[in-house]
Amino acid sequence: MSPIDEAYERILASSVHPVEGKLLIEGALRGMAETLGDPYSKYMTQAEAKSHRESLADERVGIGLEIVENKGRFIVVTPMKSSPAEKAGVKPYDEIVRVNGERMDGKSLNNLLSAIKGEKGTNVELTVFRETEDRHYELTMKRSALQVHTVTSERIEKNEQAIGYVAISMFGEKTAEEWEEQTRTLVKQGIDGLLIDVRGNPGGYLHSVEQIIGTMLKDGEIYAYMQDAKGVLEPLPAKTAKEDDYSKVMKKIPILLLQNAGSASASEVLSGALKSNQRATIAGGTSFGKGTVQETWELTNGGEMKLSSHKWLTPQQKWIHGIGIEAEYKVEASELYQLNPLPVSGSYEAGEFNEDIIYGQKVLKALGYKVSRVDGYFDEDTADAVLSFKQDKKVEANATMDNIFYQTARETILANKTSKSNDDQLQKSLGYLLHSIQK
Fold this sequence. Notes:
Helix content is about 35%, strand content about 25%. By secondary structure, it is of the alpha+beta class. It has 3 domains: about 60-145, Pdz3 Domain, CATH 2.30.42; about 150-335, 2-enoyl-CoA Hydratase, Chain A, domain 1 (Alpha-Beta Complex), CATH 3.90.226.10; about 345-415, Orthogonal Bundle (Muramoyl-pentapeptide Carboxypeptidase, domain 1). Strand 11, helix 6 (about 175-190) and strand 12 form a beta-alpha-beta unit. Helix 6 packs parallel to helix 7 and helix 7 (about 205-215) packs parallel to helix 9. It is globular and about 60 Å long.
């Protein structure tokens, strides 16, 4: 380690660029992790480690906003229901221009989030610009504890059959508890099949997915293998709770798991376990392909080192890293349902070229309008499609991709996404599960 000590002392003594010693240490730690060439191994400062833990917690302090950065502007995607932000009047697509009187021009998204964060019970003031009203609002809200729910469910009746639909957004601290509570309710209500939706689920805690798997597999069935750095394999058996009526139903009921390319890590442990043990049909597309497990070690400077310490393999001892788990029933999502209502604005006409035009062309094509290109060049077909779209929506009828066009496009996408009947991937998967039950 002496070369590191030598470099440390030399930089502090001779560099014309002043730097704190602790920052040099953090830079060296980051460099060590980056040398592994593994995107999942990294050094985290004390603040970064705290944020990481909060992201998986069932409760966090904040104001309840989802924010994206677009061309240097900070746009609200949506305020959380009943959050301080929603109660204060923040709306989707508001642009945050000031936090506690400080302008956000030239700041990063991390700078913005840091400015918004604070202790429970303290106030934060936001200045937002609402494009639809062409005015600014000064809004004050109190930071509070926010409950984060990772599991949602509902009972869907179709063709005289009842399907329990359960969506898992990630595997956090309380996900297994939420899962059991909601699936118990569904079983009491009476269901003939279960559809588990893990589309876009990035993973999370292994212990959470282990508990969920235990409700569906028989006690002792292998749900995955762990392989350490020396190549030693350790089988992971399912652990089931005391048998009751709920347990009996969950271990026999027909199951379909719906995944996509955004289903990763712990989501893939779940799909691999159910598929390999022939406990569920996997529908949708091929999953992301993350076959490593990370452990975190605390360091004496308050930071943490997060490393990929194990590979996880399916019960058939297959490593899916970079490959993913293939769906047995392949079904693509509709173009319109895959589109997100992005905070795009501007004004473009025929003959112009811009990245924002690509988004408009994708929306028009997904809605069925005749668009010959989606490369950002505003040609005659695009102009005709824009005019037809505006006429159909009964807004200002011209062939310009302006703020009215983008606002109407966002509203159209949101209206489409709010109804599960427009989710072709889900509806076809439901149909497949119902057909399997009726057999």
